[in-house]
């Protein structure tokens, strides 16, 4: 077991990482509302822009609540790779889905 300066430095880094994980869990349980929310645009084309925990930026239809775009956590300008926007023209009508399904 090493007790030199490098060991002390590594232990301090481990302790800081542990504190950060606990703080992130605490924030996740206690942040109930968006960190930021504001309407962008005017009229029928306006959307809500929300910054939510853990640093995810969402663009939301203010009328329906549908998420129109969602970022990677901590990367507000990068679309989350798993996000697939709703495309009504590709989903077909309810009547067509009932006939197929």
Q: What overall geometry do the principal axes of the alpha carbons give? A: elongated
End-to-end separation in angstroms reads 65 Å
Kindly provide the radius of gyration, computed on alpha-carbon positions and rounded to a whole number of angstroms.
22 Å
**For the largest beta sheet, what order do the strands appear in spatially?**
1-2-3-4-5
Q: What number is the mean pLDDT?
A: 88
Largest sheet: 5 strands, antiparallel
Order of helices and strands: HEEEEEHH
Strand content: 25-35%
Name the poorly predicted regions.
95-101
Number of β-strand runs:
5
- The secondary structure category is alpha+beta
- How many helix segments? 3
Count up the domains.
2
Helix content: 25-40%
Describe the structure.
With 101 residues, this protein is α+β, with helices and mostly antiparallel strands. The protein has 2 domains: 1-30; 33-100, no CATH class. 37% of the residues lie in helices and 27% in strands. It has helices at 5-30, 88-91, 94-100, and strands spanning 36-40, 47-52, 56-60, 67-72, 75-79. A hairpin with a 2-residue loop joins β4 (67-72) and β5 (75-79).
Features:
alpha+beta, 3 helices, 2 domains, 101 residues, disordered C terminus, elongated
Tell me the layout of helices and strands.
Elements lengths: L4 H26 L5 E5 L6 E6 L3 E5 L6 E6 L2 E5 L8 H4 L2 H7 L1
Antiparallel strand pairs: 1-2, 2-3, 3-4, 4-5
Brief overview:
The chain is 37% helix and 27% strand. By secondary structure, the protein is an alpha+beta fold.
């Amino acid at each position: 077991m090493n007790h030199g300066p490098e060991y002390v430095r590594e232990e301090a880094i481990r302790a800081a990482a542990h504190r950060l994980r606990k703080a992130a869990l605490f924030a996740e349980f206690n942040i109930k509302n968006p960190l930021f929310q504001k309407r962008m645009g005017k009229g029928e084309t306006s959307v809500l822009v929300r910054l939510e925990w853990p640093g995810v930026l969402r663009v939301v239809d203010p009328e329906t609540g549908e998420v129109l775009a969602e970022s990677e956590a901590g990367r507000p300008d990068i679309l989350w790779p798993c996000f697939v926007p709703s495309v009504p023209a590709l989903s077909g009508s309810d009547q067509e889905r009932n006939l197929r399904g």
